[in-house]
């Protein structure tokens, strides 16, 4: 019965989306206030019904109604309750319902925090969001309905993929979706402005906090995903350039470019067309990511069970949203020309450069991700190795780090290059000195990693990249700190947010460089009581014991780690076999630290003398990388709360009162 | 040319040089990291890259896994149900690596016709089969 109610509320929610997509726009075009006023209530109702539907799905998992196919497929009677709840979004159908829920949640937020906008504006924005919700609601209902029953009802369910039985997976998808879907807000604002035919700085100012917030969630979602992959996949890697990871990274790159170019279009009223295009691109890439993940068109470690018809549906949605948006853009493009001039030597130029760098990175990641599909249509079966993405990204991020301090210090409209160079020159020298010290201390000059450029010219790229990375990190770091010295006084929250994020960039670059170029990995066969010396750490293997825990059988390895005869940690990696599905899984043991992580994972038993395959990693400064990401996120959120974005709200309210009194 | 124009021209030239170098390096990186996917049959026909890494995929042949008890060496046969290729690997194997399971190995073919793998991938789902492997087996079935 409950499943039917869930299905029913889903349909009602979808009908509200339909009304939201139609009525306010109709009202706007016919100048009918009553119809325009329906936008907000419809947005709330839509959210309410989808929320009920989602809560019902969670309840079905908790009470273990295995007559519902989706519940049966993804849980079983011995699954702990916390994973029964998170199993709701552990597979395709439920995760799409979560997506829809978050879509309606953002729509609700927009409805609630839009008091400063006029009726016509809010009617258009919410209607565009309604169109998007309608598409995804239809997708959930027709193509991936989680409420379908199986008859007769099975006694027990299958299992949730063991990889997903983890705290990281409980929180990673909702946060990531907050980011993905959040990008629909700047998209909707841009489209609504295009429909109205007027894009001025108030529109852009209003969309900035939304973009910052969505970007913050997206950043955090990606960080969580990376952290999860690191400890849960047991390979010690933190980013694999897997198509699904790229799918989340593409909208992030577009949104980063968007944030920077919005600064110009709001403050200087220039690059408005580019702002609108990036807003369209950001959300389109979110939808494209969904398509790539759901269609199973790409080989990936995380692709869900694939179904080509689902892929086609999402592709059609993408065609409608992106195609419609671009068509509208083409109609209005002549109204977006900026009349305001600026010199080549100005902040505008540097922020434009930034957006071009991120746009190029986005394009190159997209190219590497889609190329195998293009090649396949010509009957070549290929894939693009991760080193392509790695070296490409390095090349693109050098100019990013080099220009960042300039972008920060340059003045709007016109600035003397001499002034900025004089300002930054001491920092350049300071960074160089710090880099030399760091390279000497960590012996970065000893790194050997030869690659051949054009197949003949050998270059020790490892050393060059490591030292360049460290320099980039100091260069950004010192200039962020120096900024506060130059621009003293009352800084706005937006500026603080920007600088927190940039500080995060510096920390991130440092962490990535150290982790990538000074890490250490060894696979070995170890017998009980054998000790391995790994980079100054002595790792003693005590043996493996068998144990039955919750819903799995575990082989637990015992390791004692010491450094200079001082105790460091006891580490207990596991090899699990999940009872219900018989799926094996590696659970790594990690000893996290401020300057390094120790990481041990257990392979399999090699012989009857208790010998096991063991992988030991030392990962220097890997926490700094995620720490940097978290700082970027905090910066995004902090900037989103800047009062300046809401000051207009008060002014508008006053105007409304004035017009009311006058009439 | 006016001084401003000269400056602009210089800036444009510098940007073009920078973009040119970056594009050349990126294209090289791209070209060198294209991994071809080959089946055992294609490899036996000599249709594979000789001096660089590529991927071979198929099913792990039943009963062919041969693990050393004194090191992390393992060798096994990968099959497309028509031909087999021997694969040699040293290191930890993925969790779901076992008989009759789809897998992909990345590496090179040595002089003796043994594939020396640097990396072995098996998906974390027992129902999963790499799409290439699935396609290949599908084609084989059609031919028979």
Any key phrases for this structure?
heterodimer, A: 663 residues, alpha+beta, 4 domains, six-stranded antiparallel β-sheet, four-stranded antiparallel β-sheet, 20 helices, 63% helix, globular, B: 144 residues, OB fold (Dihydrolipoamide Acetyltransferase, E2P), 2 domains, five-stranded mixed barrel, 33% helix, 31% strand
The Rg value of chain B, from CA coordinates, equals 23 Å
Low-confidence stretches of chain A: none
Helical element count of chain B?
Answer: 3
The geometry of chain B reads as: elongated
Q: Largest sheet of chain A at a glance?
A: 6 strands, antiparallel
List the helices and strands and how they pair.
The complex is a heterodimer of chains A (663) and B (144).
Chain A (H helix, E strand, L loop, with lengths): L1 H29 L2 H4 L2 H24 L6 H6 L6 H6 L5 H21 L6 H25 L23 H16 L1 H13 L4 H32 L10 H25 L4 H24 L12 H25 L14 H31 L4 E3 L1 H24 L7 H25 L8 E4 L3 E4 H26 L6 H26 L1 E7 L3 E5 L2 E13 L2 E12 L2 E6 L2 E5 L5 E4 L1 E3 L4 E10 L6 E9 L1 H19 L3 H19 L1
Antiparallel strand pairs in A: 2-3, 4-13, 5-6, 6-7, 7-8, 7-9, 9-10, 11-12, 12-13
Helix pairs in contact in A: 1-3, 1-7, 3-6, 6-7, 6-8, 7-9, 7-13, 8-10, 9-10, 9-12, 10-11, 10-19, 11-12, 11-14, 12-13, 14-15, 15-17, 16-17, 17-18, 18-19
Chain B lengths: L2 H30 L1 E5 L1 H5 L9 E7 L5 E2 L5 E7 L4 E7 L11 E8 L4 E8 L9 H13 L1
Parallel strand pairs in B: 1-2, 5-7
Antiparallel strand pairs in B: 2-4, 2-6, 3-4, 4-5, 6-7
